[in-house]
Specification:
The chain is of the alpha/beta class. The chain is about 30% helix and about 30% strand. A hairpin with a 2-residue loop joins β5 and β6. The chain is globular and about 45 Å long.
Length: about 210
């Protein structure tokens, strides 16, 4: 699954002459669903959209608050053209999930967002319609996001995603070791006692 996340001051969706959705400050999401996407991909994308820190905090520090922290709106628009490959100069969209399957899948993503956040702050376009999407990009800030499950070749995984996976494994290991240490106290004179400074644990500590 692919998503283009844009920080906006306002965004609207119009079909024909009718404006069907409008938001103020928040995020405009273009979402492309592939034939191989599963609930795992959807859960990852929803979690990242709602928790990605793209806004300033109350002290004006950038990249410190999420859309949920700020209680801003989210406008989500289905965008199958994100699932393209080029054949010469012509885009091919056979990797996109067929419309009859994509619509209920897309609807479930919206329901996931609403149940995780505030339903009244989640807006969307009109699935399958020819839409005019107008945005005022704030920054500009535009983030391209892909779900890890869609990357079947490990070589395609971003360096950042690999680092995140290592952090999660390291933290899990550290937590497990800490629990064992609490249940079996060591003497101060024990030469084998770990200082916590070796291996990957020290490199993953938060400043």
């Amino acid at each position: 699954m692919k998503a283009i996340i844009q920080r906006v001051t306002n965004a609207t969706v119009t079909v024909g002459e009718e404006q069907i959705s409008s938001i103020g400050r928040g995020l405009c999401i273009l979402l492309g669903i592939s034939v191989e996407d599963t609930k795992r991909d959807a859960d990852y994308i929803v979690r990242k959209i709602l928790n990605m820190r793209l806004f300033e905090d109350e002290n004006g520090r950038p990249w410190n608050k999420s859309v949920m922290d700020k209680e801003f709106e989210v406008l989500c628009v289905s965008q199958f053209t994100l699932q393209y490959i080029l054949k010469g100069n012509k885009p091919d969209f056979h990797l996109a999930m067929p419309a009859e399957l994509a619509q209920p899948f897309y609807d479930s993503i919206l329901e996931n967002m609403k149940s995780t956040y505030k339903p009244e702050l989640i807006k969307d376009g009109k699935f399958g319609a020819h839409m005019q999407v107008q945005i005022q990009n704030d920054g500009p800030v535009t983030i391209e996001l892909s779900s890890p499950a869609a990357l079947t070749d490990p070589k395609q995984m971003s360096k950042q995603e690999k680092q995140q996976q290592r952090k999660e494994k390291t933290r899990s290991k550290a937590s497990s070791e800490s629990s064992r240490e609490k249940s079996t106290p060591r003497s101060r004179q024990d030469p084998n006692a770990s200082s916590g400074a070796e291996g990957d644990v020290s490199s993953e500590r938060e400043p």
